[in-house]
Amino acid sequence: MLVDPIRMLNPLYTIAEAARIVDVPVSTMTSWARGYRRSSAGRPDVVGEPIVTWIEPKDRGWPSIPFIGAAEALVVAAVRRRGVPLQRIRPALEVLIREIGVDHALASQRLYTDGAEILYDYGHSRQDTEEGHAAMELVVVRSGQRVFEQVISSYLNRIDYGTDGFAELIRVPPYLDGVVVVDPRRSSGAPIFSRGGARVEDALALFQAGEALDSVCLEFGMPVEHLLDVLRVTSCRAA
Predict the structure, then answer these.
(1) Which of 19, 20, 70, 192 meets the CB 3.0–4.6 Å disulfide criterion with 29?
(2) 102 φ/ψ angles, rounded to the nearest 5 degrees
(3) pLDDT tens digits for 90-112?
(4) pLDDT tens-digit profile of 163-221?
(5) Is the Cβ–Cβ distance between 56 and 64 less than 8 Å?
(6) Are β-strands 36-40 and 167-171 bridged in parallel, bridged antiparallel, or unpaired?
(7) Looking at residue 41, what is its pLDDT?
């Protein structure tokens, strides 16, 4: 596989920043990136291996997750949003990754095109197990074809893929589809408005400093409804 360092090797986000991009708690993102071990008296330890790409940071507080890791995390977030416990779906995801057969399989376009079929076959062959049931919860059959369940599809549809078949842009949840994006080649991967290209934090800072809504939108070249959507999300997160 031809490696694109901008997307795959350059850490762009701290764990907290990646968590905000895919809209999950920081503790959840930490377990996906670093793995976890949980102990309880009288029982074997429960171990979860890392499932998204994480790179040892240069120092405390430095970025550790490249863009490709954020794309992988978005896929895992879709599973979480569907309500399937990651511990139950991990065996199916491991089969999925192995069948796709490339590094960063969760950020590969093959997941979008072939993943539902792979998960369906896995679930069908293990339909009497919890793991098999978990896999089947992510897939539906429409017109004779295996496709991802609606929640999963809505997340996968937020990813644009490059000519190499790997994620190159994410339309960030929970904003309305296409309002805010992350692109590793623009603004160092920070969330930006799709219209005008302004960094979300810059527009928010100007508005919070007292600038009128219309003036901020004129300054940065974005529709008013896009800034209103960002303010909606910001207020919900602050609540």
Answers:
(1) 19
(2) -135, 155
(3) 899 999 999 999 999 999 999 99
(4) 999 999 999 999 998 999 999 999 999 999 999 999 999 999 999 999 999 999 999 99
(5) yes
(6) unpaired
(7) 73
In whole angstroms, what is the distance from residue 170 CA to residue 190 CA? 11
Q: What is the dihedral of CA 76, 77, 81, 84, to 10 degrees?
A: 30
- Name residue 26's amino acid: V
The structure tokens listed for 180 are 């805010």
